[in-house]
Known about the structure:
By secondary structure, the chain is of the alpha+beta class. It folds into four domains: 5-97, no CATH class; 116-197, no CATH class; 203-221 and 319-383, Thrombin, subunit H (Beta Barrel), CATH 2.40.10; 229-311, no CATH class. Helices cover 14% and strands 34% of the residues. It has seven helices and 22 strands. The protein has helices spanning 99-103, 120-128, 168-174, 179-183, 280-283, 294-311, 328-333, and strands at residues 5-9, 21-26, 30-38, 43-50, 64-67, 76-86, 90-97, 106-107, 147-150, 166-167, 186-190, 193-197, 203-209, 218-220, 229-237, 243-247, 252-253, 264-268, 320-325, 342-346, 351-362, 367-374. The strands form four sheets. Strands 1, 2, 3, 4, 5, 6, 7, 13, 14, 19, 20, 21 and 22 form a 13-stranded mixed beta sheet that branches. Strands 15, 16, 17 and 18 form a four-stranded mixed beta sheet that branches. The longest helix is centred in the C-terminal third of the chain and has 18 residues, at 294-311.
Amino acid sequence: MFYPLLYKLQNTTHILNQSAMLKIGMMTEIISGKVTEERNGDYLLEIELLVTDDCADLLDTQLFVKAKPNPTDEPQFFEIYNLQYKDKKSVVIKAKHIKHNLYNNFLVEVQNQTDIMCTPAEWWYRLCTGQEEGLQTQMTLWAHYFKFTSDIATKSSMTLGFVTPCTLGDFMGGADGSLVDVFGGEYKYNNFNVSLLKSRGTTTKYHLKWGKNLSSLTQTIDSDDICSHVAAYATCYDTYAKRNVVLCSQPQELKSHKSKLIKVKAVDVTDGGSVDIGNATGYWNFNAQTGENKDLLIQKLNIQAQVLRGQLASTNGAPTLNVKVDYPTTLDEMLDLHLCDTVYIDTANDSLQAKIIKTDYDIVLERWNSLELGTPKSKLSDYIVK
């Protein structure tokens, strides 16, 4: 067993970096401990420790615990954010992976960047590469030592983080228009190294079989994201500086959809969308009295709707899966699987693919507590054909 280690930051710069981490203890009297990680989501540690442990008196928030997160990855640093003492017998430690420290950093406002086409790695270089060796700072509010790599070679323009300030977490994956939203992919974290990969996992040959090593399965057919038409709109200002939202006059019907009713998905194209509108700021203005420029604006929005019609793919009520595996025997068989791996689920009538979207690892018993499989959560950009 890898016993969790307690660290503190020894420098006075208040900038998190591995060379400044000082080990101050080892936790051995552990009642329970687990690490949970979600695909492109939270990465958390929780430990219940006896107060008789040598580290118990040293504990404080904003210290760090180094723990084994799963069967194959190297130990990771987690920052303590919450301590709960239970009847003076034990203390529950809650900590977040240090990637959350990176995500809380801010991008400052930057202009004249939205017409540039870059890969994810190139965007990171523009945002976060500083002058000092190893110290990443440029358009972030404070310096950091995190490094970024990506195997995605696709280039695209971006607006999030350039039009208004936002956190690095928003820019990397927490909002519409983020790196993940624009490029797709799955994040892999290794302490101060962050990778955005086309696919973090692999398609395995492992089969979960209904009635054998799988006892519960939820298959959902959801029509909430089905739409029949797409419309483009833009936020603009008239000659009195009054804010207006202008909608296209000709919503476009999707080429293939299963909506039995008219359902329109409206898409904001204020920042230009796929149509060349030249000077976007001036273009969206119109005369409130004469209506001058408004007809041209609506005409351009109609063109934008036609472009979106070719890009937007309806989900068509595609079935979504949700499976939680918690049988110890089955979990032992799945010990070599990883987050984002794809497995097969064999039912009486079909063999379906599902991705591991959440892991729960017991750091004491060194085994999975549970694995969740299913269809990854989607945003609007997941329905855009890339």
